[in-house]
Design brief:
The complex is a heterodimer of chains A (249) and B (307).
Chain A lengths: L1 E5 L2 E3 L21 E3 L1 H15 L5 E8 L4 H10 L3 E6 L6 H15 L3 E5 L10 H9 L2 E12 L2 E8 L2 E8 L2 E5 L11 H9 L2 E4 L12 E7 L8 E3 L2 H10 L5
Parallel strand pairs in A: 1-4, 1-6, 4-5, 5-11, 6-10, 7-10
Antiparallel strand pairs in A: 2-3, 7-8, 8-9
Helix pairs in contact in A: 2-5, 3-4
Chain B lengths: L1 E5 L2 E2 L2 E2 L1 H11 L4 E5 L4 H8 L5 E6 L7 H11 L3 E7 L2 H13 L5 E4 L1 E2 L4 E6 L4 E7 L4 E5 L15 E4 L9 E8 L12 E5 L9 H11 L2 E4 L1 H5 L20 E5 L5 H7 L4 E6 L12 E4 L2 H13 L1
Parallel strand pairs in B: 1-4, 1-6, 4-5, 5-12, 6-11, 7-11, 14-15, 14-16, 16-17, 17-18
Antiparallel strand pairs in B: 2-3, 8-9, 9-10
Helix pairs in contact in B: 3-4, 5-8
The chains are: A alpha/beta (249), B alpha/beta (307).
């Protein structure tokens, strides 16, 4: 089967983001950008499915600026076969991305779309579920294990209090949680090979999708800072403070 | 127009985040609550007693799956201006799906209600708060429970009726669940939480934390590093990609205080950090810091609490 893996270009998870002084957003100029870590897990899972002979072709897709080609190259170096960039400068909300991906699914006909459960910039955790809805497909979200069983996927999901297993008919959407796998580092030869793999560029208009945002950001601000408290010298002192000063135990 | 809350429940009891979501919903209009899924009957009786709930709708008692539940929400949606659910694993699974079916951009993890169209939500792991105004006719939200004081469990008397059945699109089926049975309180509702980090060194070593938890009636959490290392189950994870908690007392043991972890616990009322590295960032947010070897300090803490 063909597998589609959407990947998002985000501010690297190690960067301490700064809110812009004018409150219009966070500083993204001259900041290290990377593939959304949960999408890396999704790419890894797709590559493993290919190594197991379950997947035949892996197509990585990114919706974003021209520079998102870097993240597609990362996916190609990890083992994706080719890339599609849906190029758009400006805000793309999960609903718009889901509509763009639906159009790509229409052209490519994958049996599985696997993507990260959440992007670490807008923290929406919505694109996979929205795409599943628009396609009328089943969804296996927050997956920690994925196995193909006939014409369905058995997906073990991370839920509050433990794990849940669902069987989702193919074609399906899976969103990757942390424990699904540990993504590989691309080797130098694979990075070189990835340079030769094709990346096609399309525009939202080519796909007939209106990506106008539904949300307007009125302001972005820093949350209230917490003040550091005091150091205590011993466990006895700690318990005494918690009992008599903070009165929480 | 009324607003609809999709309740979270477990073992026939409503979760505390559901009561917080009702608190958020009360700012928006008359509240109706939909209870569906396994054990919905008992939970529905509890939901009908929540203050401020005008009407209670009961759905299917089959295990909740995203596809039929989203279809049910869409069928009910014409009667409501807002659809809300706690930002739990269940709410985050179904609400974006329902939103897309309604052609609405979901608002995830809302931590403040400004007005009927305008909401505050954390972005970048809570390092920034965005105030956003939705142009959609109908709003679909998940609610960060720790940002809203839960309504009391008793005081209301809602009318109860069965929600019209929605067709199951038959896209997925429930196979099974492994829910950890624990005598300890739920992480997101506990008054006290004690969490361990990578410095715990092994899953077995979490036992020393559990002993303290049992002394305090606390829930046990873990940092992502501890989960990644296999020392703790993922559902114990506190942080941006795990649970968001805001207990009266949060005790961080052997946790350095990565941004990712702070995002999940920095709204706790009192924070205690026990770490042998006095430069650890966790001390910058802790009300009480103890620089000590956890393997010595934690058993001492348990002994001291026993006194």
């Amino acid at each position: 089967m063909k597998v589609l893996v959407p990947v998002k270009r985000v501010v690297d998870y190690n960067v301490k983001v700064r809110v812009k002084a004018d409150g219009s957003g966070v500083e993204t100029a001259n900041v290290k950008m990377s593939m959304n870590p949960f999408d890396e897990i999704a790419v890894e899972e797709a590559v493993r499915l290919k190594e197991k002979g379950v997947a035949e072709e892996i197509v990585a897709v990114s919706c974003g600026p021209n520079a998102a080609q870097e993240q597609l190259r990362t996916a190609l170096a990890m083992g994706a076969d080719r890339g599609i960039l849906v190029e758009h400068d400006g805000v793309l909300e999960p609903l718009a991305v889901a509509k763009l991906l639906k159009a790509i699914v229409g052209r490519e006909g994958p049996a599985l779309v696997i993507l990260g459960k959440q992007a670490i910039d807008d923290d929406m955790s919505a694109t996979g579920q929205m795409l599943a809805a628009l396609l009328g497909w089943g969804q296996g979200t927050f997956a920690s294990r994925v196995e193909k069983e006939g014409d369905a996927l058995r997906v073990t999901r991370e839920v509050d209090g433990g794990l849940e297993t669902v069987s989702v008919k193919l074609p399906a959407i899976v969103t990757a949680d942390l424990r699904l796998n540990e993504p590989r580092y691309a080797s130098l030869p694979n990075i070189m090979k990835a340079r030769k793999k094709p990346i096609e560029t399309v525009k939202p208009a080519d796909l007939g999708v209106d990506v106008t945002p539904r949300l307007s950001v009125l302001k972005v601000e820093e949350p209230a800072k917490r003040q550091a408290g005091k150091k205590v010298g011993s466990v006895q002192e700690l318990v005494e403070k918690l009992r008599n000063e903070a009165k929480v135990i | 127009m009324a607003v609809l809350v999709l309740a979270d429940h477990k073992d026939g009891a409503l979760t505390q985040p559901t009561r917080s979501t009702v608190a958020a919903a009360r700012k928006l209009g008359d509240v109706h609550v939909l209870v569906a899924g396994e054990g919905a009957g008992a939970a529905a009786a509890a939901a009908a007693r929540l203050p401020g709930v005008a009407k209670l709708l009961t759905g299917s008692e089959a295990p909740a799956l995203a596809e039929p539940l989203a279809a049910q929400l869409v069928a009910l949606a014409p009667g409501y201006s807002h659809l809300l659910a706690p930002a739990s694993a269940a709410g985050r699974n179904v609400m974006p799906r329902a939103a897309a079916l309604l052609d609405v951009q979901v608002l995830s993890d809302v931590c403040g209600v400004v007005d009927a169209d305008t909401f505050i939500r954390p972005i970048y792991a809570g390092n920034a708060l965005a105030t956003v105004k939705s142009a959609d006719a109908k709003k679909v939200l998940t609610v960060r429970a720790t940002s809203f004081d839960p309504v009391p469990a008793e005081g209301g008397n809602a009318t109860v009726e069965a929600a019209p059945a929605a067709a199951d699109p038959g896209l997925s089926s429930f196979v099974g669940a492994e829910i950890v049975k624990s005598e300890r309180p739920e992480l997101t509702a506990a008054r006290i939480v004690i969490s361990g980090g990578r410095a715990m060194g092994s899953a077995e070593n979490f036992a020393i934390i559990e002993k303290v938890a049992d002394r305090l009636g606390a829930a046990v959490g873990a940092s992502r590093a501890a989960v990644d290392a296999g020392y703790a189950a993922n559902d114990m994870q506190v942080g941006q990609t795990g649970k968001i908690v805001a207990p009266e007392l949060y005790i961080a043991v052997g946790i350095s205080g990565a941004i990712q972890h702070l995002a999940g616990m920095k709204d706790s009322k009192v924070i205690v950090a026990i770490n042998k590295d006095e430069e650890a960032p966790i001390f910058q947010v802790a009300d009480y810091g103890l620089v000590a070897d956890l393997f010595k300090a934690v058993p001492e803490l348990e002994a001291e609490l026993a006194k």
